[in-house]
Amino acid sequence: RDTAVEAMASVEWDLGQIGLQAEIQTDISGEHDGYEATLALTSATQLGPLAAQAGVGVRHRDENLNRWEYGVFSDEARPGRESYDPGATTQPFVEANLARLTAMCAAWAR
Questions:
Q1: Global confidence as pTM
Q2: Is the dihedral of CA 1, 85, 72, 25 positive or negative?
Q3: Which H helix or E strand runs over 60?
């Protein structure tokens, strides 16, 4: 399979204690013509030198993207590896991130 080139757009809304994020990625090269869309609620806090973020959301991938990434086309099928078309998927997710905030140099620490 050839390399795909994708474009992405993302927007975030600050709703006070939580944030709402929406993102879409789509193929612009014509390699698979698929897309992925994500919608998430997030919350972030700083604990001294640590930054913590947690979120819940849902991610939808259309059948074209899933077929290109995970499918087995009929010309790729072999004995023991049948052709496979996963179809579209919608996946809920929970994520958490923890990072240590460190200045790259003394001037940045001011």
A1: 0.79
A2: positive
A3: strand 50-61
| Residue pLDDT, tens place only, 58-78 | 999 999 999 999 999 999 999
| AA letter at 45 | T
By C-alpha distance, which of 25, 22, 29 is closest to 57?
Answer: 22
Tokens representing residue 94 in the block: 């929970």
Tokens of 91: 């996946």
| 32 touches 66 (CB < 8 A) | no
Give the CA angle between residues 68, 7, 9 to the nearest 5°.
Answer: 120
**How many helices (H) does the chain have, and how many strands (E)?**
1, 5
- How far apart, in Å, are the Cα atoms of 54 and each of 22, 63, 72? 16, 29, 35
